[in-house]
Structure formats: structure tokens, C-alpha cells
From TrEMBL:
It comes from the Bacteria. Signal peptide: none annotated. GO terms for molecular function: NADPH binding; oxidoreductase activity, acting on NAD(P)H. The keyword Flavoprotein does not apply. SUPFAM superfamilies: GroES-like, NAD(P)-binding Rossmann-fold domains. Residues 10-323 form the Enoyl reductase (ER) domain. This is NAD(P)H-quinone oxidoreductase. Pfam families: ADH_N, ADH_zinc_N. InterPro entries: ADH-like_C, ADH-like_N, ER, GroES-like_sf, NAD(P)-bd_dom_sf, Quinone_OxRdtase_PIG3. Keywords: NADP, Oxidoreductase. It comes from Corallococcus terminator.
């Protein structure tokens, strides 16, 4: 089969399309003929040599796929050849075939195509887990979502609004402000031109927010804590700009703040299956009837993966960037 591989670490020059052995499904694995996969920041970090693939997982990039069932391992029951499925995988998505754990597989709703399903896979699981399981989001609360125009960010904003909460978000351009406002965000803040702390406190009349969803990391820690209400919660979803920061412990203690972290790929499979089950129970019916439409920036063929990476590196995307795989 054809697959994208990184031959060394670095820029676009290390990205190659090669013929590699097709994976063989055993145990609880499905072999999926990939029709679409989607980009994540971790793919770019892996290419650069910063992100190291967990032991035992595929070094082929790509952690979410949509396609059709081709074959399965001896422990799998209930699937049929040609069935349309999507889900989060342990690497291997940038390829014509990929292994998908049967308990991580979700049936693609009739209303969604492969591109939309690929765009929904990882972002939906991460958004649900961080907002509701870690963040404890309830109707009527207020949430600040950083990187609001990202694939996960656009999903979070929709989930927040769907449950009757207030969504504030930060983005990096006026175009993204407009896009997130159209998506339903109550407040979209251009962090390059506005002080998000001042804007949040003004828009919340000095109260702050119940929950902060942060993709930035160390550089934002102090400011994120400053906009939290008493007993508010900060969830670290990513570390794009710093893995270390000073922490004002007195502020945390006095205001009884919570600080939590999340990483789906590093969790054992048994926990990933639980994450998947929680998303399925809470959101699959909503997704199937069009109540949580994936926001898609654009799609590129697998052969144009370098161009797709460049689009993400330039931070031009609003929503997910998808790679399509010719059958």
C-alpha cells in the first residue's frame, strides 16, 4: 500500500510517499480501507522530531480515519466488509489502509461523507472528554476556548452552545473572528490585537469564566488563571507555546482553582475505548441529525500532504484540514 512516511526529522523535505507493507488485523483490530484522514498539530511536531510516537504505535502519521471495513481480527464481531466507519487510531492514518480497534470504530451516519467523518473523529472525542468529563461543563456556565478556529476549537464552541452554555474564544485574525461569530461563539477575541484577559473580564462584567480550554500551555498559564472564577477549572488540551511556567500557588489555593491535563494518544487502549463510548453515548445521535457539523477548512489529496501541512503551519485553517485517499 501507499503511505506517507517521515524519512528523518525536519521540514517538507522529509515527507515521502512510499510503498509499505499493508497492516494485518489481529485480535480486536479492523483493517480499514482509508478514504479520508485529517491533520493534527502532533503530525507536524512528529515530522519536526519534537513529538515521539508512543511505543508500539505506528510511525506512519495520522490519528483519525474514515473509510470502509476490509477485514478484521479473530476477536471482532458485528462488522461487515464494506461497512463505513470512522474513528481515532494509534497512528497510520496517512495511508491507503489502517488498523482501527473495533471498540474505537464508529459507524458513519448516512448524512456524513468520508471527509466529514474524518474531520469529526479526533476533535469530537477530545472536545467531549475535556469539556464534560474533565471540565464538568454544565448549562449556564461560561467557557473560554483558546485556538477557537482549530478543528477541536470549532467543535468545542458548537458543543458549548449546544448544551446552553456561553462560549468565548480567542483567534488570530479578523477573518477568524467573523467565522467563529457565525459559528455561534458569543465572543470572539483577536488575541493579536486585543488583550484577551481584559476582554474576558469586560464581557463577563468582572466575574470571569467557569472553564478555560487551553491549547497554548506555559505562556498563557498566569493569564488563564486570572480569568477563572472562584473554583474555576483550567484544562490543558495542548502545549503549543511552552511546556513550563511559574505557578502562583497562593492564587490556586485561595480561589480553590482546578488545573487538569489531557492527552488521548498517551492513554492505554482500555481508557481510549471508554472515551470513545462516552462520546458515542452523548453525541452520536446529535452528529447523525446534523446538530454538530464538522467545520472543514479544506481537503487535499494524500499526494499533496506537504501543501496541507504548509496550510496548517501558516495557521490559515478554520476547522479541520483533511487528506483524501483515492480508492
Amino acid at each position: 500500500m501507499r503511505a506517507v512516511v517521515f524519512e528523518g526529522s525536519g521540514g517538507p523535505e522529509v515527507v515521502k510517499l512510499r510503498d509499505v507493507p499493508r497492516p494485518v488485523p489481529v485480535g480486536n483490530a479492523l483493517l480499514v480501507r482509508v478514504h479520508a484522514t485529517a491533520l493534527n498539530r502532533a503530525d507536524l511536531l512528529q515530522r519536526a522530531g519534537i513529538y515521539h510516537v508512543p511505543e508500539g504505535q505506528s510511525v506512519i502519521p495520522g490519528v483519525e480515519v474514515a473509510g470502509t471495513v476490509e477485514a478484521w481480527g479473530e476477536d471482532v464481531k458485528g462488522f461487515t466488509r464494506g461497512q463505513r466507519v470512522f474513528g481515532v487510531v494509534e497512528g497510520g492514518g496517512y495511508a491507503e489502509f489502517c488498523l482501527l480497534d473495533a471498540d474505537m470504530a464508529l459507524i458513519i451516519p448516512e448524512a456524513l461523507g468520508f471527509v466529514e467523518a474524518a474531520a469529526a473523529a479526533e476533535s469530537c472525542l477530545t472536545a467531549n472528554e475535556t469539556l464534560f468529563e474533565l471540565g464538568g461543563l454544565k448549562p449556564g456556565q461560561t467557557v473560554l476556548v483558546h485556538a477557537g478556529a482549530s478543528g477541536i476549537g470549532t467543535t468545542m464552541v458548537q458543543m458549548v452552545k449546544h448544551v446552553g452554555a456561553t462560549a468565548l474564544c480567542t483567534v488570530g485574525t479578523p477573518q477568524k473572528v467573523e467565522a467563529l461569530t457565525r459559528l455561534g461563539a458569543d465572543v470572539a477575541i483577536d488575541y493579536r490585537r486585543q488583550d484577551f484577559v481584559a476582554e474576558v473580564m469586560e464581557r463577563t462584567r468582572g466575574e470571569g469564566v467557569d472553564l478555560v480550554m487551553d491549547f497554548v500551555g506555559g505562556a498563557y498559564l498566569s493569564r488563564n488563571l486570572s480569568v477563572l472564577k472562584h473554583e474555576g477549572c483550567l484544562v490543558l488540551v495542548g502545549l503549543l507555546d511552552g511546556m513550563a511556567a511559574e505557578l502562583d500557588l497562593l492564587r490556586v489555593v485561595q480561589r480553590r482553582l482546578q488545573l487538569k491535563g489531557s492527552s488521548l494518544r498517551l492513554r492505554p487502549m482500555v481508557e481510549k475505548r471508554q472515551v470513545n463510548a462516552r462520546f458515542r453515548q452523548r453525541w452520536m445521535e446529535v452528529l447523525a441529525r446534523g446538530g454538530l457539523p464538522p467545520v472543514i477548512h479544506g481537503s487535499w489529496p494524500l499526494e499533496a500532504v506537504v501543501e496541507a501541512h504548509a496550510e496548517m503551519e501558516a495557521n490559515r485553517n478554520i476547522g479541520k484540514i483533511v487528506l483524501t485517499v483515492a480508492p
